Amino acid sequence: MGGQQAAYAAAPVDLRLQAGVVSEVGTGLNAAGADDVIDAAGRWVMPGLWDAHTHPVMWALSRRRIDLVGSRDADDTARRVRRHLDGIPSGDQLVMGYGYRSGGWPAQPTTAQLDAVTGRRPVALTSGDGHNGWLNSAAFALLGLDAHDGPLVENEWYAAFTRLEALDPDVLDPVPALADAIGQAHAKGIVGLVDFEFGSAFATWPERIARGLTSIRVAAATYADQLEEVARRGLRTGDPLVPGHDLVTMGPLKVISDGSLNTLTAWCCEPYLGGARLEHPCGQPNQEHSELVAMMARAREIGLTTAIHAIGDRAVAGALDAFEATGQRGAMEHAQLLRWSDIPRMARLGITASVQPAHAPDDRDVSEQWWGDRTDRLYAFRALHDAGVPLALGSDAPVSPLDPWLAIATAVHRSADERPAWHAEQSLTVAEALAASVDGQGTVAAGSRADLILLDADPLAGPGDRGELAAYLRDMPVAGTIVGGRVVHLAL
Known about the structure:
Layout: E1 14-18, E2 21-26, E3 44-47, E4 49-54, H1 56-62, E5 66-67, H2 74-86, E6 95-100, H3 111-118, E7 123-127, E8 132-135, H4 137-142, E9 152-153, H5 154-165, H6 169-172, H7 175-187, E10 190-195, H8 205-210, E11 217-223, H9 227-233, E12 240-242, E13 245-256, H10 289-302, E14 306-310, H11 313-326, E15 330-334, H12 342-349, E16 352-355, H13 359-362, H14 364-371, H15 381-387, E17 391-393, H16 404-413, H17 430-435, E18 452-455, H18 466-474, E19 478-483, E20 486-490
Parallel strand pairs: 4-10, 5-6, 6-7, 10-11, 11-13, 13-14, 14-15, 15-16, 16-17
Antiparallel strand pairs: 1-2, 3-18, 7-8, 8-9, 12-13, 18-19, 19-20
Helix pairs in contact: 1-7, 2-3, 10-11, 11-12, 16-18
């Protein structure tokens, strides 16, 4: 397979792939006896990319729901819902939408506003960060709940969302939509992902494998309500979920320890600016510290690592306390707002920062509104990297697109529009962003996993201008993707 190594071979080299690994790297390798030969015509080869934080079914289904991304306020969102309903047959089937962000709106949405444009048809809308949901009265009635004046948030929303999804025909059989989404991910160079789907992903992947979803590596997480089922099955982090199929393995325990910025529920050390009207001006945790420690300790006891969602700086500090108290290993998901003193502590504890760069420009304006006195401590990728904290880039799809090149470009540029980089001092280099996207596979060499991508351009050779470099990375053409030695995407 002609190409270039990440270590910049002086001339094109060949790779031999056997039994899921790179067995040889050299010039002029003999192709005799090979089952397949691909002439990569001098393209660049590098380790395949991972997305370290996804909700893949939600991502797959979000493209089939009302698109609310970019809606300006509650009225604009309601107008989009009305236009969608005008374009589909009438009936009483649940309609769902996704993508509004209410954190920066002048007023929060009300049930009455949604009722005015939906009538008796059940409608349920999910916020772009997944931490709150806006329902009309018919949707509340469908769930047997008394209607609220405004959105459901955090744990109350998660419970309602799980029940709503069970009523969505696409959710009853998400495999077709998921297969399509995985194919698109391969076309972007994705070879693996961490699945944090609500409902405990570890329990659903064996059936998906049986139905042919066998082209991607997956670390499938669980939530606390299924810990004892994981223990009963004797699964430990890294164990194959299906014997003989090592691409899909048991992932970590996932715990959502606080809320989000856009829902104004991320747990902070200081109040939100102008947050006196909030019921909880500093946000709040989703469980007591003792509960978090107990969950993490039980996970460690049965052989699971832990991934803790922590967005506010108080939540980050509390999660680090729990990691230290339990001796657990794993990742801090998001690590969005940090106290400077907690960064070396995270490094000392060996905790990975699982971060989503595309969230930074998405949150730029709402961060300035609510956390304007502390934005220098937001998305502090450079500080984390320089302190020795391992970084893992992801999307939190569908919160941002499942697109590793968008994550890499944004980690480097920290802007998504014509404005200059937001806190450019926290940018990563291209090499650093790539290294945080390959699940520890730093190069292509004999013994490497045969998880590879072929690129039409050298990702390390982009233009010097920061904005042009970001565009170069976002548009990176992926000519081929190989997982475990199997070609899953080819566009030569």
